[in-house]
Amino acid sequence: MTLATAFALAAALWTGGDTPPDSLQVIRTLPAADKAALTTDTAMVAAAHPLASEAGRRALAAGGNFADAAVAVQAMLAVVEPESSGPGGGCFLLFHDMATDSLYAIDGREEAPAWFRASMFVNEHGQPVDDIMTGGMPVGVPGTLAAMALLHQDFGRLPFAELMEAAIAVADTGFPVPPDMARGIVSEADRLARFDASVDLYFHPDGTPYREGETFRNPDLAKTLRLWADDPAAQFFYRGELGLAMSGVVGSNSFRKGRLRISDLANYKALYREPILGSFRGHTLAVMPPPTSGGIALLEMLGLYATQPKLGGDPHDAATLIPHLDRLARASRTAYADRDRWLGDPDWSPEIPMRALCSPEWVASRAPAAFAPDADLTLAADPGDLARHTTHFSIVDADGSMLACTSTIETIFGCAQVVPGYGFPLNNELTDFNWIAAEDDPAPNDPQTGRTTRASSLNYPQSQGGKRPRSSMCPVIVYGADGRPAMALGSPGGSRIIGTVADVLLGVLEFDLDLQDAVDFPRLHCRNQPVELETFGWNRDVVADSLAARGWTVAPLAYWPLLQGDVNAVHVLKDGRRQGVSDPRHDGGPAGY
User: Fold this and answer.
1) Secondary structure, 3-state, 527-568
2) Going by DSSP bridges, is the β-strand pair 554-555/531-533 parallel, antiparallel, or unpaired?
3) Can you say how many angstroms the Cα of residue 220 is from the centroid of all Cα atoms in its chain?
4) Which residues pair with 216 in a beta bridge?
5) CA 267 → CA 111, 193, 243, 260, 413, distances in Å?
6) Strand-pair partners of 407
């Protein structure tokens, strides 16, 4: 059986597990017992869909390494999770290569086109225009293909075309629509309906949306992946036929025209950046640097938490849980306030020492205010409640090399515009800039703050072209006592990503929970706003009342699964075996051998 045939069969057989009777039901309870950690001897992949994990596993079993598996996983996610990532988006890659025993970070973040202007997004009253998320206007220059091409060029082993076979087979033959995709089509139906190519792809001829369990095929995306298989450097995308198609549909968009041009695509580069190392309770953590804020904010949050004595006890008991949540909320709101004020694209604000925010000195200076009983921090701008649609996968290969990758198209189905004839939606990443900024107190993530040209070789004179909007994505690698990578994890969830990752890390590193138990554990978010408690998994009223008694305002949080994150993690156990964990709140599942 060929690899392509095997995946076509797997796609036909996979049903997505038990589902609620109403496939459009948004609220659902996923008991932790629905998923268990997978443990194997040699290698492991954990991704947001079982077919994506299996694509990575097969690449590893065929003699590939973490880089090969990452390319195969991302290609498959473009097929089976199109609402979250794909060729039209961007990504961050953090990985430790055991062949060189070195840590690397690749920035594949989308960036602003050369003719981008902040004035495009606001009306005559200085307020954002209606439906800023949709159409050509918010589309940034995509970076995912460039990042994956760079990763494979420098670290891959297998022929690139082989890594596309599985995704091409599933796109051609079809797969059952998973719950998250079905909910996404329904929730974004009005936006998708603005564009003929989007309607043709995600709706039946009678106008009804594809529903959970129905077979979905995408031959146009299969065509795109074949083009990539023949051109690993993705020149067809950045300088050729697909680049012209993208710039054309953005520039002539039927809803709102954008400024993406073929020259912007040709100028794009995925960049190596210097990873950041931090520590928590004696454990070394590696994170991505800006333009994502996730890593620095996470390290500051954990550092603040660690200034307080270790609680001990069982977080399932109220005597431990409530003090823990209070401490976490205090550390979180402080880190988010600093994030919102100081973090952005470092190439545009090089004078700001962004990395200092997670230094021991800064953490020590912030701790007294964070944990004072009458602490009163200045509230940041509202980070918003949109369920940003993003995905995360983690890999450990046979050599012990480890990778954490978070990729995105921003909101659900991005800007909602599918590129006609190519089968994927474009991002709306330019909405991640701060649009309503204080004129007397500009921040690095304001669209037109900082240098007039980029502090690198990629300069666009007198424009904000090339500026990369701040992200919250937070891929993390945790090292063991032997100095080898021991755990990789991350999550989608917009600005809640940072809190989700912190919740899981504290479960493992502070309370010694098993990784699956830590992922299953209910979550708290405090984004320098009222505390948000996950709807299910605990007696929410009792927890909310206990936090209110400590002075917290607890906000209601409607249950939409992505608000809670979707952690996919791998772990090297003390005996050397590999463990994979996928979040019970979503559709993923690990695969290994």
Assistant:
1) CCCCEEECCCCCCHHHHHHHHHHCCCCEECCCCCHHHHCCCE
2) parallel
3) 25
4) 175
5) 11, 32, 12, 12, 25
6) 91, 391
What the block records as the tokens of 54 is 């299996």
Residue 515 contacts by C-beta under 8 Å, 6 or more apart in sequence? Answer: 37, 487, 504, 508, 569, 571, 579, 581
Residues across the chain = 593
Q: pLDDT for 189-243, tens place per residue? A: 999 999 999 999 999 999 999 999 999 999 999 999 999 999 999 999 999 999 9
Which pair of tokens denotes residue 506? 């504290």
Angle between helices 3-13 and 50-61 (to 10 degrees): 160
Using an 8 Å Cβ cutoff, are 407 and 74 in contact? yes
> 356-380: per-residue pLDDT in tens?
999 999 999 999 989 987 765 444 4
Residue type, 147: A
The secondary element (H helix, E strand) that includes residue 591 is strand 589-592
- pTM of the complete model: 0.91
Tell me whether residue 378 is exposed, middle or buried, using C-beta atoms within 10 angstroms of its C-beta: 0 to 12, 13 to 18, 19 or more: exposed
Angle at 243 between CA 240 and CA 249, to 5 degrees: 140
555 close to 530: Cβ distance less than 8 angstroms: yes
**How would you classify the pairing of strands 476-479 and 90-97?**
unpaired
* Residue where the block lists tokens 């604000």: 349
Query: Cα separation of 321 and 311, whole Å?
Result: 9
* Contacts of 125 by beta carbon, 8 Å cutoff, 6+ apart: none
> Nearest 5°: phi and psi at 290?
-60, 150
Helix axes 160-173, 3-13, angle to 10 degrees: 40
Contact 249, 419 (CB under 8 A): yes
**Angle formed at CA 528 by CA 584 and CA 341, multiple of 5 degrees:** 115
Bridge pairing between strands 90-97 and 402-408: antiparallel
Which amino acid, 136? G
